[in-house]
Amino acid sequence: MPNSKQFIDFLIEMLGAGISARKMFGGHGFFKDGLMFALVVDDQLYFKADETLAEQFCHLGLTRFSYKRRDKTCFINYYQAPEICMEDPDEMRNWADSAFKVARVAAK
Fold first, then answer.
1. What is the pTM of this model?
2. How far apart are CA 37 and CA 20, in angstroms?
3. For the CA atoms of the chain, what is the radius of gyration?
4. What is the pLDDT of residues 8-60, one digit of tens each?
5. Domains in the chain, ordered, with CATH?
6. How far apart are the first and last CA of the chain?
7. What is the side-by-side strand order in the sheet with 27-32?
């Protein structure tokens, strides 16, 4: 199922200035300052995480992004965004800022 344009536009608005999205990997990558910090697949938002941030996602019962490759399930370090992000712009930006910090550290 492709991502809806309305959902992508909604997320760009919620995430604030300086955010762009582009199609990739059957979904959309979200970028700030050239760094990808979020991913949307099938209208589900995922944020980039390191070990510390992943613990917070797991504590909330949120799932890690996975995909099938041949007969194998593969995982990448992106976790399902908390539902509160869809309702509260401040929460959205807080989680996005944390994910962006992870992306910035990973790029070094």
1. 0.92
2. 11
3. 13
4. 999 999 998 899 999 987 889 999 999 999 999 988 999 999 999 999 999 99
5. 5-107 (3.30.1460.30)
6. 34
7. 19-24, 27-32, 35-41, 44-48, 72-80, 64-69
